[in-house]
Amino acid sequence: MPSRRNVLKLIGGGVVVAAAATGGFLAMNQPSRAARAPWREAGQYDEFRRRALSFALLAPNPHNRQPWLVRLDGDQALTLFCDLERRLPATDPLDRQITIGCGAFLELLVIAAAQDGYTAIVTPFPDGEDMSTLDHRPVAKVEFVADKAQPDPLFAQILERRSNKTVYHPRNVPQALLVELAEAGGAYGTTSRCVGDTDLAARLRDLTWRGHRTEMSTPDPMQESVDLMRIGAREVTANPDGIELEGPLIGAGRLAGVVSRDTLGDPASTAFQQGLDMYREMAMSARAFGWLANGDNDRTEQLNAGRAYVRLNLKATELGLGIHPWSQALQEYPEISELYEEVHALIGRGERLQMLYRIGYADPVIPTPRRGLNAHLA
């Protein structure tokens, strides 16, 4: 969400700012509570698979597309599919990031099932895979075994986990915490590394900012993001997915006609430029970075990267750290190729980088909207 300073620059003062100060205006332009109901409903189901799924759907995923479609099989199994209408063909043409999001979903499912005493046995891509795109074949089959599975301590962090997309505090992250975070991400054969405020972090700050700027100046990926913006609580309530823009200042910007899809997607507009300024400030505030890599030889390794990422996200929550994926330079569309080569030469070490994220201390943020369990059941 834009900072107060930036939005006030956009709307320019006068009657709009006065309107934003009134109680009625503020009340009507608060973030959607209904769109965040799934965070309050998690675990409130009688059937154990639905309980586990209600936690799994809180997983991080690209552009908050929530591309998970689940078929319940018998009494002790389920099948996960990708909802193909929720892919990101411009920014994620090979569906790598969508697959990573499916991995995060599966890991939260496994953790939540263990809390109920079930071991969840995951079989990835049981009917085969295609590395060029996902299709109608299953992403995974999951069988549940009631064997008093050992609870995972990270379960306690699921409802508190966030992707913190704010400006981070000017405070270095202790090396000991970075070691713990890297260790948490070293699961399922994934290479996990973190770096504090060093020359390498400075280079990554610059590189991640250039990746964002490239994406915003490339028409198709930029338009894909704009199309997925939900502007104001009413839109977020109607479509609790995508990129939410909420709060009284967004409402004031809409009222003034300066916050809209047209202005946010127009490189010549003040709103667009303010958005770039906001993201540059976010990028430059990062004091530490982390990344995940593996061989990327099949879709299972992409799933494993997602499973590892959500584990380190939960660990960051436990440690009181904010993390925010910033992986534009890792994407596969042609305009990003030079940055893709640059970042792999810098930190890839011969592996395929799957996730790049910034780390730091930040003010708390509210949960991201979610579509709810019934939206994911086939």
Secondary structural class = alpha+beta
- Shape, principal axes of CA atoms: globular
The order of strands across the largest sheet is: 1-2-4-3
Distance, first to last CA = 33 Å
Q: What can you tell me about this protein's structure?
A:
This protein is of the alpha+beta class and 378 residues long. The chain is 42% helix and 15% strand. The chain contains 15 helices and ten strands. The strands form three sheets. A four-stranded antiparallel β-sheet has the order 1-2-4-3. Strands 5-8-10-9 form a four-stranded antiparallel β-sheet, with helices on both faces. The longest helix is centred in the C-terminal third of the chain and has 21 residues, at 299-319. The protein is globular and about 55 Å long. The protein starts with a helix and ends in an 18-residue tail after the last strand. The model is unreliable at 1-20 (pLDDT under 50).
